[in-house]
Design a protein that fits this description.
The complex is a heterodimer.
Chain A: H1 5-39, H2 45-55, H3 60-71, H4 86-111, H5 114-122, H6 127-137, H7 139-154, H8 158-164, H9 174-183, H10 187-217
Chain B: H1 2-19, E1 26-31, H2 33-37, H3 40-52, E2 55-60, H4 63-71, E3 77-80, H5 83-91, E4 95-110, H6 124-134, E5 138-140, H7 146-154, E6 166-168, H8 173-183, E7 187-190, H9 191-197, E8 204-207, E9 214-222, H10 232-243, H11 245-253, H12 256-259, E10 265-266
The chains are: A mainly alpha, B alpha/beta.
Keywords (chain A): Membrane, Transmembrane, Transmembrane helix, Transport
Protein name (chain A): Tungstate transport system permease protein
Family (chain A): Belongs to the binding-protein-dependent transport system permease family.
Chain lengths: ~220, ~270
Amino acid sequence: MPVNYSEIFNIILLTFKVSGTALLFSVILGFSLGFFVALNKFPGKKILVAVINTGMGLPPVVVGLLVLLFLWRGGPLGFLEIIYTPIAMVIAQIILATPIISGLTMAAIQQVPQKMIWQARALGARGLNLVWLLMRETRLSLLAAVMAGFGGIISEVGAVMMVGGNIKDQTRVMTTAIVLEAQRGEINMAVALGLVLLALSFSVNLGLTIIQQRVKNR
Amino acid sequence: MKKIRFVTWLLIAFILLQASFAFSKNLILATTTSTVDTGLLDVLIPMFEKQSGYSVKTIAVGSGMAMEMGKRGEADVLLVHSPADEEKLVGEGAGINRKAIMHNDFVLVGPPADPAGVNSARDAREAFGKIAGTGSLFISRGDKSGTHKKELSVWPKTTLLSNTWYIESGQGMGAILMIADQKKAYLLSDRATYLSYKDKLKLVILYEGDKLLLNSYHVIEVNPEKFPKINHEGAKAFSDFLISPAIQKTIAGFGKEKYKGALFFSDAR
């Protein structure tokens, strides 16, 4: 079979569109949730932390199944008509990455000595100022959280297969394309796509790592 | 403050990007793995999309799951090959306008050494009986697909499908051809998928030709009276497209040159 480069390029592009969008939202949600839980005392906090920690290991196929049931025409959100679209895939990936990012964020903030937070508050740091200060303090861990979230969704296949349907030119991403090619017996193609995925994943993480290490040395 | 504004713009840009995902009117086609694995739909769907303006979402699952999606109104149109279940679906009122599109046949495929000796069988039941009798490895789809249903109907009534030699894989047609090839096992495959995979396999056709092994594909529109939300206009357009003389010719000619023989025979009159 002749290799169709424009098709592969589109698959790569879609992979980044979907996982990039999902990562952006997960970072916003995950940071907010992580900071909120770490900085506040409220009843049921331990249970919420346990729920978030469990969420860090959510099985992608279970998430896929749940999203599928919600987004199906007969489901509660069926009227949105977004099943088998990239938006459905983004939603599934947000559900997967948010607990990872918020869990690691929470752990990072809780490592900051309580005295430092008291001191900052005493010096007048409130709300966003305090968050900003803590973000600078824990930036290494926070970037690691972002990388963990990205790693979780770029490599994920079960959920995007279910809610996206692996439709050619519409919802086929790197991982689902690899599964399909392997099943078709196009092993060379599957391996080639696998290497591309690894290379892309490496370059993104390299970029984030460079940012991470640079701030450390400053 | 500058940073927050930057993030806001980034967000807006991403949301606009998402909007570019919105398509023209969607049509959900639930179908069997064989129509996708052979590449037939890769040819037909772009033609239909160009002609009709619909954006087709092809969900390749087994015929069992495809019909379940029809029963729940989660698909608009079905292209399946499990006649008994199809009639039931139409009888229950979930599907309408069932039309014959094409056929080929199922073949019993296995390792060239043929340890069970199915080569000399007089009919399909005897061939299957020999596999069970010798306890030779057999891989089943095990997914309620059309092929799985057909396979279950061929086993002699007295056969006990014991898991010492009978393996239920739960995967698509192409996938289990690859598995059977590695495990030197027998399996029932539709001829089209086998032919399109032949170059990658050591497996050969060991038994063919029984009338019992006929494999026919029908298109069914999901009943719009039962599910008002579905895209029935699109379903009807797709059904009409499949039975049109030009497309029937395309189907009959599909893969003929590459595989030196037709993969599908057209059925619509």
